[in-house]
Specification:
It catalyses: ATP + protein L-histidine = ADP + protein N-phospho-L-histidine. It is a multi-pass membrane protein. The protein has about 500 residues and is of the alpha+beta class. It has three domains: about 180 residues, Beta-Lactamase (2-Layer Sandwich), CATH 3.30.450; about 55 residues, Helicase, Ruva Protein, domain 3, CATH 1.10.8; about 160 residues, Heat Shock Protein 90, CATH 3.30.565. Helix content is about 60%, strand content about 15%. The strands form two sheets. Strands 6, 7, 8, 9, 10, 11 and 12 form a seven-stranded mixed beta sheet that branches. Helix 9 packs parallel to helix 14 and helix 11 runs antiparallel to helix 14.
């Protein structure tokens, strides 16, 4: 029943109800004890007290002169009825007079219990009994002997004891009821100090369940609630840290999954592009080789042409394979960047001189006039970047046009720019230039044997170096650029 009563109640109400139940139980127990044991306790106490009054009376009769006032004082002090008689049975003292109701009733009680009284007097010199009489009711009586062969009877009614026990029980009940009411009100009001921290903890736990870890529980006290609040705050911090780590790990896992998907797509795309790019040269090689095998040509000039075609297509395939291998090594981190200090001017000058021979028929002018400049980078990888930029410029420069290589300072880096005169790149194609196998003008690319891989190698190389790169349509043509870390203190700013 108690569980049912407390179920679905607030902590304040539960604490108040528990206090009421405890106090009520204690008070009822007190009343029960009063009703069952207080009378017995009072009786034992009165018997002890009546013995003391007997000893006081004995001391009075041990004096040379016995005064009535002395006995009166004892009777008044203890509020007892006292009766004293001499050896002949004559009443020498009575607190209520010889003709009182006590006089007759006591002698009747004594006569009725004479044997019992005699046995007690023989053992201890006096007899104490609890007797019930119609005229006197229930009373505690003592009979003993005094010096000079006197007999004393001391009596006190039980009615006062019973009344005291009853009144004590009633008083306890009334006071208990007041205490229950006052205690319940005080507990309900004071319990707020205990329930407020619990409510704060419940609020914090609820917010934590919604992944909000900003709320903190006040921990002003050093008791159990304070330590619990501190533990909740610590738990909140650890949960926030753990969830943060889990989110980070989840993001990394998601990236890995996306990367794997991307790699798979790149692999499929790669195979598709490679098969497409190799299909034409393989078909040409196969066709011309079969022609030679079948001896369909009689003249040596035609046979030589067939052999030249086969050789050219084989070279294109070889260049494509080499570029693919280079790109694969860079993209997958197999080709480690070896940082070294070198003179980039000397490297580019050698490459420019080689390019001049290749564009003589086009009457293209290549301009390069930069001072000695040192940079930090992987020399062989940067050489591949410059080579791809120059190759791209040679393939797209207009006849009689200009190719120009120049430097400028870009922050802490040196920006190398390769410009060629010619048509601008369509704006929608600029961002696609770095995509593998992408060709803006497929017919022209096929004409010079481009594979669409060179700029992808540039992109992978610069990402490996962590440097910027790009292309822009400028006045008169197109300009490609890339950055490398400068090893010199001075250079012209861009």
């Amino acid at each position: 029943m108690r569980k049912k009563l407390l179920k679905n109640r607030s902590v304040r109400v539960k604490m108040t109800l528990m206090l009421i139940i405890i106090m009520t139980s204690v008070i009822l127990l007190s009343v029960l004890i009063n009703l069952t044991m207080l009378k017995t306790y009072y009786t034992v106490k009165e018997k002890k007290t009546i013995k003391e009054s007997y000893y006081q009376t004995q001391k009075v009769f041990q004096k040379d002169t016995v005064r009535k006032n002395d006995v009166d004082e004892i009777a008044k002090t203890y509020n007892y009825r006292v009766l004293i008689s001499d050896g002949s049975g004559t009443i020498v003292y009575s607190s209520e007079g010889e003709k009182s109701l006590m006089y007759k009733s006591l002698w009747n009680i004594l006569n009725e219990n004479l044997d019992k009284i005699s046995n007690q007097i023989k053992k201890q010199g006096y007899a104490v009994m609890t007797n019930t009489n119609k005229s006197m009711g229930t009373s505690i009586n003592l009979m003993g002997y005094l010096d000079g062969d006197y007999t004393v009877i001391i009596s006190t009614p039980m009615e006062s004891i019973q009344t005291s026990a009853r009144l004590s029980g009633q008083f306890t009940m009334y006071v208990g009821l007041i205490l229950i009411i006052c205690g319940a009100v005080a507990m309900y009001l004071y319990s707020r100090q205990f329930t407020r921290p619990i409510e704060d903890m419940a609020k914090a736990a609820n917010q934590m369940s919604h992944l909000d870890f900003d709320v903190k529980v006040p921990t002003g006290s050093d008791d159990e609630l304070g330590r619990l609040g501190a533990s909740i705050n610590e738990l909140s911090s650890k949960l926030e840290f753990t969830i943060s780590e889990l989110k980070t790990a989840n993001n990394e896992l998601q990236k890995d999954i996306e990367q794997k998907v991307q790699i798979d797509e790149m692999r499929k795309e790669f195979l598709s592009h490679v098969s497409h790019e190799l299909k034409t040269p393989i078909a040409l090689i196969q066709g011309y080789s079969e022609g030679l095998k079948d001896n369909i040509l009689d003249d040596e000039e035609s046979k030589e042409f067939y052999c030249d075609v086969i050789a050219d297509e084989a070279k294109k395939m070889n260049r494509m394979v080499q570029k693919l291998l280079t790109l694969n090594q860079i993209e997958f981190g197999n080709n480690q960047v070896n940082m070294e200090r070198f003179d980039i001017t000397e490297m580019i000058r050698n490459m420019v001189e080689s390019s001049k021979i290749l564009v003589e028929k086009q009457e293209v002018k290549i301009i390069f006039d930069e001072p000695e400049t040192h940079v930090w980078a992987d020399e062989f990888m940067i050489e591949e970047v410059v080579n791809n930029y120059l190759s791209n410029a040679r393939n797209h420069v207009a006849d009689g046009g200009i190719i120009k290589v120049s430097y400028c300072r870009h922050g802490n880096d040196v920006r190398i720019k390769v410009f060629n005169t010619g048509d601008h790149i369509p704006q929608e194609d600029i961002d696609k230039l770095w995509v593998k196998f992408y060709k803006v003008d497929k017919a022209r690319t096929r004409e010079y044997g481009g594979s669409g891989i060179g700029l992808s190698i540039v992109e992978a190389t610069m990402k490996a170096h962590g440097k910027d790169y790009g292309v822009a349509n400028v006045e008169g043509g197109v300009e490609f650029y890339f950055d490398v870390e400068s090893a010199d203190s001075e250079s012209v700013q861009c």
